[in-house]
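Example 3.2
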Amino acid sequence: MELTSREIWTAVHGMVLGAGFLLAFSGGLAGLWGLRCNWVTGEGAKKLHRQLAVGSWGMAILAWLAVLLGTYVIYPWYRAKAPPGAGGDLLAGFPKYLLLSRPQTKEWHEFGMEWKEHIAWFCPILATAVAFVVARYGRLVAGDTTLRRALLILFSVSFFCAAVAGAFGALINKAAPTR
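Structure, written as tokens:
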């Protein structure tokens, strides 16, 4: 099996950075959920806070790298303009126009790529917000149920945005790969 450089960058974007964020989410969710004064000792809370701060910053960095790589490296390949009158096999190198040329895949561009272009940016923004609050106010998170619940919601919305963007990305790349 041989991969082109574009396929390698696409795999790094989705399978390494994006999937890494999604897989790390379960650990972050469990860490946030378990950071409670009545569940852990003071020493345990301190250790869990440290792990959660490092892990949440790691997840935020993964999310930023995935979005930036997708936006500034992969997306320009996706939206490259097809030559006038191109059709059939000539559109294979122009994924956006290939999707738009077929009625059954037109919505993949019109809705799926819109999600990836715009909503996916919520993922790193929200992940960074959670990481900042956990790092800055970690001990308060353990004792404040409302704050912890708000962080869990922000974290879950970040995961949802990344998961939907990843699903659309996989489907769109299957229908019209960047070669």
